[in-house]
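We were asked to recover a plausible sequence for a given structure. The inputs and outputs are reproduced exactly as logged, with field labels preserved.

PROBLEM: sequence recovery
POSITIONS: 324
GIVEN STRUCTURE:
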């Protein structure tokens, strides 16, 4: 027992010492394998963590506002993929919509439900176009680096998650470097990518989504009546032909390697108020409806005549709440 306690103490120092202490403890006790005991102190990939579909559904329904399509499709895609022990290709999702509609927030929810440490996990990797791939003249370098990075991380953890933010700011051609990894190959250079997940986040296509939402609103139909088939094809064609989508004439679309194009609808006044309440709750504050209303009314809404949708979604809710 004292060796196990010693291992706990050493865990705060550095991983090599942890390994030595745990190794000694496992040899003496004989109860746990080295890996089992080590993984009590450090994050391990090992066997794929089971997806709790009920928890994911609850997170999406309680934390994501006004996005019935995203909730439905993401839940369906993830549960189906993770329940398949032998997928034929990685799961690839492309999330589209205007700023502040919840795309980044959903990627956080997904990461937290797939890996215990969420976005802080060693097995969840976030790429930001303007940070990691800023210069157009270095596209070939970025392609090579991206291939090496993904190959190395999937080799270390088959169920790795890769999130590409600001796809609409990614230089054309960069993302096609990962096409072989998203395809229906059993292995690429000895590595299987079939259990990995790739998520693209983009503002591209937001205008198409808003156009459809407005058509439904003007026809007196509920936003919940909008179905994936009303938007998905138009989204895929739109971003394929958009030079500023990051997927312009991409082989990922041409070869149907993106499993779902997921639209995030523009947010209405009621959704903004829901965001404010959620932020107040997260801060441990009592819900003050006067404050909720003030913050929501400070937002700018469009179109000019009807003023239905928040032009920044819920993106500035936190900063506006700070000044109340």
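RECOVERED SEQUENCE:
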């Amino acid at each position: 027992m004292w060796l196990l306690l010693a291992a706990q103490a050493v865990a705060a120092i550095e991983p090599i010492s942890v390994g030595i202490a745990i190794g000694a403890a496992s040899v003496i006790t004989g109860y746990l394998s080295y890996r089992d005991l080590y993984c009590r102190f450090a994050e391990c990939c090992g066997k794929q963590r089971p997806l709790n579909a009920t928890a994911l559904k609850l997170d999406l329904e309680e934390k994501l506002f006004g996005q019935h399509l995203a909730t439905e499709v993401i839940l369906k895609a993830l549960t189906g993929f993770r329940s398949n022990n032998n997928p034929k290709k990685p799961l690839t999702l492309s999330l589209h919509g205007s700023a502040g509609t919840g795309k980044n927030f959903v990627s956080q929810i997904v990461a937290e439900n797939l890996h215990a440490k969420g976005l802080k996990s060693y097995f969840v990797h976030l790429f930001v176009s303007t940070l990691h791939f800023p210069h157009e003249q270095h596209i070939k370098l970025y392609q090579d680096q991206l291939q090496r990075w993904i190959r190395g991380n999937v080799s270390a953890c088959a169920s790795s998650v890769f999130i590409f933010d600001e796809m609409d700011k990614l230089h054309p051609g960069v993302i096609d470097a990962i096409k072989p990894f998203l395809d229906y190959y059993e292995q690429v250079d000895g590595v299987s990518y079939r259990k990995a997940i790739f998520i693209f986040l983009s503002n591209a296509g937001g205008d198409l989504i808003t156009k459809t939402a407005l058509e439904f609103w003007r026809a007196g139909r509920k936003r919940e009546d909008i179905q994936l088939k009303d938007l998905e094809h138009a989204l895929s064609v739109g971003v394929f032909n958009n030079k500023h989508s990051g997927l312009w004439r991409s082989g990922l679309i041409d070869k149907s390697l993106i499993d779902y194009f997921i639209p995030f609808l523009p947010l209405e006044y009621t959704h903004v108020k829901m965001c404010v309440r959620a932020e107040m709750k997260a801060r441990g504050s009592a819900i003050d409806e006067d404050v909720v209303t003030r913050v929501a009314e400070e937002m700018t809404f469009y179109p000019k005549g009807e003023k239905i949708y928040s032009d920044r979604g819920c993106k500035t809710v936190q900063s506006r709440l700070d000044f109340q």
